[in-house]
């Protein structure tokens, strides 16, 4: 399915990062090791690399990865692109931060396992930055999956990252324009939290 969506001409979600990222990326330490989950055509990982971070981007679709590599080349940045499904990712690899933007293909049981993996991958003192849709997004029809169970609820996020220092947890509506895939009035959730422990 994703190969077909990404095969269309141009970039499905545009080439600029989700607005959440430049707005909130100041929490990242300089030169952070960052993992971008299911990063599609590379708009977020390439932007982070342009800010001086050491970025690994994981994506299942080879079609998307080809476009992501082309975008990185055009911007003159280096990203370690890895072809992998999020379910099969090796969470033992350590990162200063894990970024997940609109990764809402996962039903609740899988999402919980993904969050457990994120918690394992983030170093003590490191960060998780998640940005996606709230359940009411389904009625807006401006992007995202059709199943409200796939959407984010702040109470679930706090539960999945219990004991972490929550730095931002907001549920809000705004207009977005991110390529053909995300455009119009949108119900969004931002969640940023720091893992307990000292920064390495």
TrEMBL record:
Keywords from UniProt, A to Z, are: Methyltransferase, Transferase
Annotated GO molecular function terms are: methyltransferase activity
Q: PANTHER family from the xrefs?
A: PUTATIVE (AFU_ORTHOLOGUE AFUA_2G14390)-RELATED, TRANS-ACONITATE 2-METHYLTRANSFERASE-RELATED
Recorded superkingdom: Bacteria
Upper lineage: Bacteria, Pseudomonadati, Pseudomonadota, Alphaproteobacteria, Rhodobacterales
Q: Return the protein name.
A: Class I SAM-dependent methyltransferase
Question: Which Gene Ontology biological process is one annotated for this entry?
Answer: methylation
Q: Which InterPro entries match?
A: Methyltransf_25, SAM-dependent_MTases_sf
Q: Which residues form a coiled coil?
A: none
Supply the Gene3D superfamilies for this chain. Vaccinia Virus protein VP39 (3.40.50.150)
Extract the CDD domains matched here. AdoMet_MTases
């Amino acid at each position: 399915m994703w190969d077909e969506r990404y095969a269309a001409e141009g970039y499905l979600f545009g080439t600029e990062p989700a607005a959440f990222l430049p707005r909130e990326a100041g929490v990242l330490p300089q030169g952070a090791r960052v993992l971008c989950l299911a990063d599609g055509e590379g708009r977020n990982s390439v932007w982070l690399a342009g800010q001086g971070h050491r970025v690994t981007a994981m994506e299942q679709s080879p079609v998307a990865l080809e476009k992501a590599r082309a975008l990185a080349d055009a911007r003159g940045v280096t990203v370690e692109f890895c072809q992998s499904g999020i379910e099969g990712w090796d969470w033992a690899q350590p990162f200063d931060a894990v970024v997940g933007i609109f990764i809402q293909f996962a039903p609740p049981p899988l999402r919980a396992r993904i969050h457990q993996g994120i918690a394992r991958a983030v170093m003590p003192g490191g960060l998780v930055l998640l940005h996606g849709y709230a359940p009411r997004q389904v009625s807006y029809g401006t992007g995202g999956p059709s199943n409200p169970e796939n959407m984010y609820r702040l109470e679930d996020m706090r539960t999945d990252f219990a004991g972490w220092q929550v730095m931002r947890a907001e549920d809000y509506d705004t207009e977005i324009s991110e390529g053909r895939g995300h455009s119009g009035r949108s119900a969004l959730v931002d969640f940023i939290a720091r893992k307990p422990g000292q920064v390495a």
